[in-house]
Write a structure and sequence with these properties.
By secondary structure, this protein is an alpha+beta fold. The protein has a domain of 117 residues: Glucose Permease (Domain IIA) (Distorted Sandwich), CATH 2.70.70. It has five helices and 14 strands. This is Membrane protein.
Length: 281
């Protein structure tokens, strides 16, 4: 009991704190009980620890928020990538629903494009997505190139009629004698529409001596087509035409023995047999 009283007495023993201002000779004495000084120190330590813990929590919060924003951005990018892949998959399924190569190439949608839209912070998934997207992009580019070749390749009959003279050596029907016939003569009634057999640009449209009214269309990929002896021409130089567009009308202008279309197909500067292209129609 005595020791407890003695301890309590010491707690309340006054401690004098002396303050000496630099601009005054008088000192300021402050008396505080020992317990007050100890309590102040304890409170200061507790307050300091609390402030430090709050600061640490704040820093961790902002770090966590930054990481969360990063991962949210990554998920958005991943969702975009998946969406593009789903569109590409749907497009491939649509194309494969057609039963022939020609139908597939005619219906290729060259507007759909797939790019690397980002990745998660997981290397394996990143590589898998990147490889898949690259393969899809390669397939799409291949289909686009094949479609460009397809629409530039002559296909089908330029006019409905009957072949009266084949490609190759023949006897000239007007003057006699052997000659090489570089195209096909297709008999048809005057005024029958003559149609382009592939997409292209008209490079010549006018009178050409023995060919009469002649139309020449450049298709790209080395292909050109010639349509001669027309009664009239429906296009002009520089005009873009699509396969099936009317470009002229059958006639017998130039050196002919009757109304027909003289049709030629050239590839890489050489005349080739148009029959091979009629069969594709």
């Amino acid at each position: 009991m005595y020791k407890l009283k003695r301890f309590i007495r010491r707690l309340f023993t006054p401690v004098t704190i002396m303050l000496i201002p630099h601009d005054s000779k008088r000192t300021i004495n402050v008396k505080l009980p020992s317990i007050g000084v100890v309590s102040s120190v304890v409170l200061w330590l507790v307050g300091s620890i609390y402030v430090i813990s709050i600061a640490i929590d704040t820093i961790e919060y902002y770090n966590m928020k930054s990481k969360l924003n990063f991962y949210m951005g990554q998920f958005v990018e991943l969702r975009t990538t998946i969406s593009l892949l789903e569109k590409a998959e749907a497009e491939f399924k649509r194309l494969l629903s057609f039963k022939s190569r020609d139908k597939i190439l005619e219906n290729v949608d060259t507007q759909i494009n797939v790019h690397d839209a980002g990745s998660l912070d997981m290397d394996l998934l990143k590589d898998q997505i990147k490889n898949t997207v690259e393969k899809v992009a390669e397939i799409q580019q291949f289909l686009k190139n094949q479609k460009d070749i397809y629409i530039s390749t002559p296909k089908g009959w330029p006019v409905i009629g009957r072949i009266t003279s084949e490609f190759g050596p023949r006897e000239n029907p007007r003057y006699g004698g052997q000659e090489f016939h570089s195209g096909l003569d297709i008999s048809a009634a005057t005024g029958t529409p003559v149609r382009a057999t592939a997409d292209g640009i008209v490079s010549f449209a006018g009178w050409s001596a023995g060919n009469g009214n002649l139309v020449v269309v450049e298709h790209g990929f080395g292909y050109s087509t010639f349509y001669a002896h027309n009664s009239s021409i429906a296009v002009k130089v520089g005009q873009k035409v699509k396969r099936g567009d009317t470009i002229a009308y059958v006639g017998s202008t130039g050196n002919t023995t009757g109304p027909h279309l003289h049709y030629e197909v050239w590839h890489n500067g050489k005349a080739v047999n148009p029959v091979d292209f009629l069969k594709n129609g």
